[in-house]
Amino acid sequence: MIPTSSLAGFAFIAMSALATPAHPGANLDCDAYAAAAVAQQERNIALGCGYRGGGWSTDFAGHRTWCLQDNVRMADLTEEDGDRTGALDICLAKARACDAYADLALQQSRLNDEAGCGQTGGRWSPDVAGHRAWCMTAPPEASSAEMDLRRSILQSCAAISGDDAQLATVDMQSALQKQQQTLQMLTNIAKAMNDSKMSVIRKIGD
Question: Could you say which residues form the signal peptide (predicted)?
């Protein structure tokens, strides 16, 4: 499935492709460009991506005015639109990883309670939304470290005995599997964020 952010970009490019300016700023479909830019900012807000700056705004008039400047060419519009689309695709991948991270945090929180480990604080909270929000603002490496720390503490907790021990072992193995999958997602995001083209995306937020 193509992300909504990509569809907005494709729509803009398709609507603007027929325009071939005779000079900078001529015949550009600035209404289409501005509408796409606003849709991308709304997606930015909905996903909690946190991108900021002049390129990230719901100000239709502001985007349109920039587009109408004499020195703006079709290539400039395509670059700006493409940068936002790329940034949103990265953010969408991170949002999915953070959903998995939050689910795992909840599972580890329950294991903490069931095993009688006695761990407290935000790290062991059952608040899925809180874990997800933190993950979205944290570097992928920090989220990975949090998962590892909780796993390590749980593995060293020996409060469960008898029949419950076998059940706890199964639950721990399930949590470890989920952690490995989430870690791979976060690793892919970290790699994408370090890609050379992301320097262009960060430029929008300056």
Answer: 1-19
Q: How remote is the C-alpha of 81 from its chain's centroid?
A: 18
SS3 string, 108-176, reads HHHHHHHCCCCCCCHHHCCCHHHHHHHHHHCCHHHHHHHHHHHHHHHHHCCCCCCHHHHHHHHHHHHHH
Q: Return the SS3 of 52.
A: coil
Q: Return the higher-pLDDT residue of 96 and 192.
A: 96
CA atoms within 13 A on the CB side of 3: 20
Q: Is the pLDDT of residue 51 over 60?
A: yes
67 neighbors 15 (Cβ within 8 angstroms): no
Q: How far apart are CA 54 and CA 62, in angstroms?
A: 9
Q: What is the rounded (10 degree) CA torsion for 169, 175, 179, 181?
A: 110
Structural domain boundaries in the chain: 4-91, 93-193
Enter the DSSP assignment of 71. Answer: T
Tokens 């390590």 map to which residue? 152
